[in-house]
Write a structure and sequence with these properties.
The protein is an alpha+beta fold. It has 6 helices and 6 strands, in the order H-E-E-H-H-E-E-H-E-E-H-H. It has a 6-stranded mixed sheet with strand order 3-4-2-1-5-6. A hairpin with a 3-residue loop joins strand 3 and strand 4. The protein is globular, with a radius of gyration of 17 Å.
Length: 202
Amino acid sequence: MHFTLTDLVTDITQNGAESGADLVELEIREIVGSSERSSIEQSSIKQSSLGQGEFRFTVKDNGKGMTNEELKRAQDPFFTDGIKHPRRKVGLGIPFLIQTAELSGGGWEMESEKGKGTRVSAWFDLGNVDTPQTGDIPGMLRTVLLFNGPAEIVIRRLRETPEGRVDYEARKTELSDALGDLETTQSLILLDEYLRSLEEDD
């Protein structure tokens, strides 16, 4: 079960990492409070009556991709290919994302091409009572960077609040060069500290 938006992001990003991709790109854009929207693309969500804003993410991979028929089946909670998770009888990742986005006053987009990859986007109204809590962004990014499979994982993060702005990019290869093996205890501690420092408002 997903309890936060970061759970949804992790799940969809893991799909990309397990698609045979050598590149997975994750972009997270967030507007919090009454900050100006001019520097972030306009969307179908207007500022909520509570002034709490919007959370949007996009995951793009260059993996095996899907045909139009496979793309439709991916949106069916009662379909699973039985390969990725042999014991699982249902596939809830994409359907749960769609349901959560729509219930929260947001929306979603999916596009894929066989042999070229997949792009999934979703957005959520942070003022909607049905929108889950955001969750631990740096902790989620640390998890994403440790996914096996892709040679490169690129994270782009933008957050605007009345107090300030966060805008950064992180690459798995660059972090591995700087920290060494990302699975050692010391590297994980340093990675976590680094990601949390990036989240501080300018």
